[in-house]
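Entry 14. Structure prediction run on the chain below.
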Amino acid sequence: MRHTPNLIRRSGIFYYRARVPSDLKDQYQRAEFWVSLKTSVRQEAELKLATLHTQKLQEYSEIRSGASCSQIQSLRSSVSSSLQKSQKLPKLDLDTLLKYWLSQSEKRPRTLMDANTALRRLNRVCEAHQAIKVDKFIAVAFKDALLAEGLAFATISKNMGLIKSIFEVALNNGRIDSNPFRDIKLLKPSRQEKSRLPFSPEDLKRIFDSPIYQMGVRPLGGGGEAAYWLPLIALMTGMRLEEIGQLRKEDIKKVGEIWYFDLVHDPENGKTLKNSSSCRRVPIHQQLIDFGLLSLINVTGLKSHDRLFPLLASSGSRQITASWSQWFGRYLRQEIGIADRRKTFHSFRHTFKDICREKGIPKEIHDRLTGHSSRDVSDGYGDAKYPIKPLSAAINSLSFDDYSFAFKRRKTALKFVVI
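Output returned:
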C-alpha cells in the first residue's frame, strides 16, 4: 500500500492528520488536526486531502498576518464548503472495474465471455453493484453461491480466478484499497470427476459412421464443410476448435514436402490463440491430405486472407465457432447418441493426446503439437519454431485404422437438412 503524507485510515474511513505549526499552537490550542474526509475510496480521499491541505496553509498564512478569530472561523467554513464541493470520482461499480481490467491487456473473446459470466454471478450476490462495498463477507458468499449452484470445480475455480484478477488489477492501479478475493480458499474435492473425457473407439466409429461422413449430408447449423472437416482435423492434429475454425488459406503452408498449419496470434486479422505456446506449426496428417483437405485452398475465388470455413459465424463478441460448438453438442447427443456430457468436441483433443501416448510419442513432441506449455527451462533455448521434421514424423506415425473408420470420400452433391 502506498503512503500519502497526512492521510490516515481508521475503520475504513480516511482522515486528514497534520501537526499544527509550533508557532501557532497557542492560537489553535492544540497540537494536531484530525479531519474526516468522509470517504473510504483512496483516490477520492487524496483529492479531498489536497484541497484541505491547501486551505490549511492559507489559513496559517492569514493567522500569521494577524487575522481575527472570526476570520479564522470564516476560513474554516470555507474549507468545509470546499470539501463538499470537491470533485468526486465516478462510482466504482463492478462493470467499471471490468472495463478497466480489459483496458490493461489484450483478452481473448472467450476470456471476455467468461469474465462477463463471472461478473453476472457476482452481481447476483452483491446487490449494491459497488466495487468499494465488496468485502470479504461478500467474497465468501460469492464462492458459496457458486458451490450451491452445483458447478464443476474447474468452473468455480475459473470464476473465482477471473474476479480475483479484476480486483487485483484495480488494486495495483489505485482504483480500490483491497482485494477481498485474494485470500479466499477453494478446497479441491478429494475425488474429482473429470470434466472432459476422450472419445472411445466405439464413439469415434459412431461419429464417422454418421450421415455427414457416409451420405454427404451437411446439416443446417453445421457450417457446410465445417461439419465434415472440423472433427477430422481435431482428431488427427489435436488442435483446438477455435484454432481450426479461424483457419485461413494463408495458414496452410509447405516447407519441403511437409504441409502444415501455421498458427499465429493476429487479432487484427481475426486470429486469436489461447497463449504464447499456442503459436506453433502443426504438420498435416497424410490421411487428411488423402481425404482432400488441400482442395479447400484451391476453391475458385478464394483469397489468401479468406477463411477456409466461411459459414462459421457467431453473434456479438463470441468466438466464431461458439454457435457451431452448440450445434455439434446437439448433434452428438441427439443424432449420434453419445449422451455423456463430459464428451464434447474438446474430447477429440483428449483422444489425440491418448493416441500419442499409446504410440510412445515423447511428451515434448505431443505438447508442441497441441500447444501445451512446458516447464522445462531448456525449451527456452534455440529457435522459437520447433523443427518441423520431428513433428511431421510424429503426426504421420499415428495410425487411425485401428479405430475401424469407414470413411467415404466427400460427395459433390450435398444435402442440407435441419438437425
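Residues 42-64 form the longest helix (23 residues).
Filed with the rest of this week's runs.
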